[in-house]
TrEMBL record:
Biased composition (Low complexity): 1-11, 17-26
Phylogenetic placement of the source organism: Bacteria, Pseudomonadati, Pseudomonadota, Alphaproteobacteria, Sphingomonadales
Alphabetical list of Pfam families matching this protein: Epimerase (PF01370)
Name this polypeptide is given: NAD-dependent epimerase/dehydratase family protein
Domain of life: Bacteria
Length: 338
């Protein structure tokens, strides 16, 4: 495999429009880097935690379709709006960026329900946004939140860094399309791209998310509050799982990498967890009766989220990216954020 090219970061002066001046002065500068980083989807489950973890360490432009709760966080400029709103894109692109962490997405179940919206937000909008913010000629780090959905299902008996993508659902196809586009931009020297394939992230809020895998987080909420739950997979289902805390650590490590890996695509380290063992451990740590969780397997959901094979992630491991360590730590980290 040929090495990825080394990049310099030439740039022209930022435009002197009022939008540029207001954006430049809105965030606290010192002791943070002169060029900010952009986080899209900053109000989401992962984005909100990442924003708080990075606050005060560097300038951040945070965007979300909903109003962001970040008034108490230093160094953050909050911009509300749809990611393909021209006014929002203009405000974001008012000055060069050091890095882009693109988290905004229409997830799997919602993408199947509204394919046109999903194609717009998952593919067209980020392409246009990245084109706008790279117009200065500098070469920002671009971290794209991809997904294990690129592998489709059924998966092969083993997944590693050489496993080919074969998405089945629209969400996975959109992620695979963006991975290839980012790899192309990287080869052209436009960005320093990294597409990180996220596994199941625990434990998401109970609010509707459009995710067919929501039952994974619902389990934690149910047992913590001593409520019964029926899981749409069997006790012998296996899933790749990672806590939000561990994911945020991985994202920050990826953001600060001094050198680039050989490939722009990375499978993230995750624990392969049996559902029955997850129920037992969540019950143990919450003091709940594990019998509150029952099983009524849905073949489609089991195939998509409960039949994940052994996973090897040597490329990510070599960069210092790690999962939670064991199931006890995974559950403890997930419960700590509920």
């Amino acid at each position: 495999m040929l090495p990825r090219p080394a990049y310099s970061s030439p740039r022209r002066p930022a435009p002197s429009s009022p939008a540029s001046r207001s954006l430049s002065m809105a965030a606290h500068r010192s002791p943070m880097a002169a060029e900010p980083i952009l986080i899209t989807g900053a109000g989401g489950f992962v984005g909100s935690a990442l924003m708080r973890a990075l606050a005060g360490t560097r300038r951040i432009i945070a965007t979300d379709r909903a109003e962001l709760d970040c008034a108490d966080l230093p160094g953050i400029t909050a911009l509300q709006g749809e990611i393909d709103n021209p006014a929002l894109v203009t405000a974001i692109a008012a000055e060069p960026l050091a890095a882009i962490i693109h988290l905004a997405t229409i997830p799997g179940g919602a993408a199947e329900t509204d394919p046109a919206l999903a194609a717009r937000i998952n593919v067209a909008a980020p392409m246009a946004l990245i084109d706008a913010v790279t117009a200065y000629g500098n070469v920002p780090r671009l971290i794209f939140a991809s997904s294990i959905a690129v592998f489709g299902h059924p998966m092969p008996q083993w997944v590693d860094d050489d496993t080919q993508v074969r998405p089945l659902k629209l969400y996975g196809a959109h992620k695979a399309m963006m991975e290839e586009w980012i790899a192309t931009l990287d080869r052209r020297g436009t960005v320093r791209g990294l597409s990180l394939r996220l596994p199941g992230i625990l434990a998401r809020p109970l609010a509707p998310s459009g995710m067919k895998s929501a039952f994974l987080g619902d389990l934690f909420h149910a047992l913590k509050t001593r409520k019964p739950i029926t899981l749409p997979v069997s006790a012998d289902a296996y899933s790749w799982l990672l806590s939000r805390r561990a994911l945020v650590e991985q994202l920050i490590i990826a953001l600060d990498l001094a050198t680039d890996p050989a490939s722009t695509r990375l499978n993230l380290p995750a624990l392969r967890v049996r559902m029955g063992d997850l129920v037992t451990e969540v019950a143990r740590q919450t003091g709940a009766d594990p019998m509150l969780a029952t099983y009524a397997p849905d073949p489609a959901i089991e195939a998509a989220f409960g039949a994940q094979p052994p996973l090897a992630t040597p490329a990510a491991n070599a960069l210092g990216l790690t999962h939670d360590g064991d199931i006890a730590a995974l559950v403890a980290n997930a419960l700590a954020d509920l």
